[in-house]
Design brief:
By secondary structure, this protein is of the alpha/beta class. It has three domains: 3-186 and 339-389 and 399-413, Rossmann fold, CATH 3.40.50; 201-246 and 256-261, no CATH class; 263-336, no CATH class. Helices cover 44% and strands 11% of the residues.
């Protein structure tokens, strides 16, 4: 069976994602299996996912996915390069034939030439020289690429991630075939476009609805906990129902909403009590950034204050949020380098079940909720998973959720 892999977050799944699945099937053949390797309860920008992973997996299956696997936590919380490297490595190991991804550019040849320029031996020296001027990593990377005659006009998030996918494929000599799909540049748009929606705008609208519902039922929590993803106006919220497939509305309306700010006190409690040694081994804390971050954690009253006090032209907001979240989850730089010994199956259709049979012969796959044997997991990767799952419940807007949910999960079948 032909299998097409998609590395994704679906935070949340929307009309644009369904369109991608339809186009991927049209390109690869109606009989192909669409395999979604999806981030779990935490996403690459350094935030809890708005809905739990099993809700997002079911959403994908209802709308065209055949198999949903969980991208391991250590890849999901890595930089764009680590995110892409981990995803490509696993899809290759699982025997997928192609990788489908969205791009804002209408020419994938530019994406591939930029990826090759990134791997040019001269690139690292050019990048370091630009970083030494004090500019941010994205700006330094862009200038270094342009010095090599590549990367011009590639600044949109999907294009940048596509470059990382291509780099990973080249480095790993992966046989994955490329299936790029063009999408409009609305990745971070604040307003909802039903045809090409922004996940950011959808999350904003969902949080507004949650705020109104909680106010109606008497729940008491700060406004910022549900208005967490953007500074929101007092205007009526756009209707997120128009931006998601109609068959998902009831699923989303019944699902618990999670935001970073809803768990702020829990995060602060951890950050204020971390010893120096724990800050020193955090991911993304090189060049003394960990020290500045530590000082701000011990002097600032709120998460937003910590991030504002630590940021600079050189370091992106997403990098700081990932560092903060890794501190809360007790993930070290060494942890993010760990290769997960297995991948979890979150859900499948009948076609996905057929694809699974071949994949199980290639790589260790565990069902959601299944505990690995000591032989499969000698370094206890499972402990990272369960700790992250237990702490995810502290980000629920409606109030803390009980721990222990990871072991109770069951694979979704659609």
């Amino acid at each position: 069976m032909r299998t097409v892999g998609i590395i994704c977050e679906y935070n949340p799944f929307h009309n644009g994602h369904r369109c991608q699945l339809r186009l991927a099937r049209a390109l690869a053949g109606e009989d192909c299996a669409l395999v979604c390797l999806m981030s779990g309860n935490f996403v690459q920008r350094g935030e809890p996912a708005v809905f739990p992973k099993m809700v997002r997996a079911e959403a994908a299956l209802r709308c065209g996915a055949d198999l949903v696997l969980e991208l391991p936590l250590t890849a999901a919380l890595s930089s764009a390069e680590g995110f892409a490297t981990g995803g490509v490595s696993l899809l290759t190991a699982l025997g997928c034939e192609a990788l489908c991804y969205g791009i804002e550019s209408d020419d994938n040849n530019i994406i591939m030439s930029t990826a090759k320029a990134n791997l040019d031996p001269a690139f690292d020296a050019l990048l370091r020289a630009e970083l030494d001027t004090g500019c941010s990593y994205p700006a330094a990377r862009q200038r270094a690429l342009e010095a090599l005659g590549a990367g011009e006009g590639l600044s949109s998030p999907n294009d940048i991630l596509a470059v990382e996918y291509c780099k990973a494929i080249l480095r790993q000599q992966s046989p994955l075939r490329l299936l790029p799909i063009h999408r409009p540049d609305t990745y971070h748009a604040d307003t909802l476009d039903p045809e090409a929606p922004s996940a950011t705008a959808i999350r904003n609208s969902i949080c507004r609805d949650e705020h109104r519902s909680s106010a109606d039922t008497g729940h008491d929590f700060a406004d910022k906990q549900c208005l967490s993803l953007q500074a929101l106006s007092n205007e009526p919220s756009p209707d997120w129902h128009t931006a998601v497939p109609s068959e998902l509305i009831d699923l989303y309306k019944s699902a618990p909403v999670h935001t970073l700010e809803a768990g702020e006190r829990a995060v602060l409690a951890v950050l204020r009590t971390l010893p120096d040694a724990a800050f020193q081994v955090l991911p993304f804390g090189s060049e003394g950034l960990w020290s500045k971050f530590m000082k701000n954690c011990r002097s600032c009253a709120a998460v937003e204050e910590i991030l504002d006090a630590t940021k600079s032209k050189r370091y992106t907001r997403s990098r700081l949020q990932r560092m903060l979240l890794c501190a809360f989850l007790s993930l070290t730089a060494a942890d993010l380098e760990r290769q997960a010994p297995y991948v979890r199956v979150l859900g499948f259709t009948d076609r996905g079940r057929a694809a699974l049979r071949d994949m199980r012969a290639r790589f260790a796959l565990l069902n959601a909720g299944e505990r690995p044997t000591a032989a499969l997991d000698p370094e206890d990767y499972y402990a990272l998973e369960t700790r992250a799952s237990d702490l995810y419940g502290l980000f629920a807007v409606s109030g803390p959720e009980a721990p222990g949910a990871e072991s109770d999960l069951r694979v979704r079948r659609c």
